[in-house]
Amino acid sequence: MRIDAPSLRHAARRLTVDADWLVGQAEWLSRSFDELPATGFRGQAAEAAVNRLHVLARPMTAPPAQMLRVAQVLSVTAGLQEELDAAEVRARGLVAGYAGAADALSLLLHNLRVLGDLLDYACARQIDLLCTPVQVEEPTRLGDTPDLEVAAVHELNLLTAPEAVQLLALEQPDLQILEVADGRLVAAVGDLATAPSVTTIVAGVGSSDPAGLPVHLNRARTVAAATGGAAVLWLGYHAPVQATHALAQEPARAAGTELQLFQRELTRRFPGQRRIVVGHSYGSVVAGKAASAGGGLYADDLILIGSPGAGVARAGELTLLGDRPQIHAMTNPSDPIGMTVTEGAGVHGPDPTAPGFGARVWPGDSSGDHSSYWADPVFLARLGELADQKKPAASSE
């Protein structure tokens, strides 16, 4: 529950009063120590004892200063909260005389509430920084801010996002930035809070290049439209820059851990959604590492497209945490990725579309290449069918 402005100001006043009292106590102790020689307590040992008492009492000066800094944070927060409260009053007054303005008012009030939540978070974080002796790390994952709704997480991330990401969010106002840090970006299109399904797209080689973000986002929009749900562009790792670097296992292994964490937090926030993960190219290696590592991957369906292998010998080694989980695979006949993997072996394991792998194989587009999956109506229709599958009702037992 959000703390109101009067409560913030009251807490600031109490801290200020108590800080002044502690300052007075510290000064009284210091005077008492200085008065000890007048009682006959003299000599080198007595002087050393008085000096030692002053040293022991010195830490008492730190809490009042800390309390005053916290009081200042609370006062500033109270002033900002009062501005938000006043904005709400003005908004209600402006639309009161307009018929059909209820939806606009509801949206405006929601945005003000999001700003209030973000203000609460910023206030609490600043107090943590003032009161914690060790450095508090900046949030970099969706799970680092579990109490903030997605809209507030988006606003928080924009405060530290690179300029390219900020411009992207400005140009595409429906974009929700879920994670951003050090060349990593996780963004959603569609309303995550209400969407019946969410499809996480794990991109591959070269996807960390900011110049390619519009292309990846267009793919996410296409998937969201095809499924009728939300889509997440997951670039939560430093993707290999070029194909020769995609032979490495370690980037996929590290990224798989990050993908696990993201899908777990997504499930915690929206447990009723159907979850689909699509791994494209090297992204399928990442998704395979996530599903084969300890703990498994929170997904109902995993789709490996244009895959050089999933890091395992067979689909049975992949663990999906979902309802009736299934592994699917698809590679276009003209996709050159097919030359890097065989039915029996490959740098990242055998071809996921091979019969012995055990995935449900979707036939590829005979004229399609490595990047045409996102424009293939058959592929998109299959995605839509998966998204439409209803999750079973929770047992009442």
UniProtKB/TrEMBL annotation:
A Pfam match: Abhydrolase_8
Organism name: Corynebacterium hylobatis
Name this polypeptide is given: DUF1023 domain-containing protein
DUF1023 domain location: 183-338
Gene3D superfamilies: alpha/beta hydrolase (3.40.50.1820)
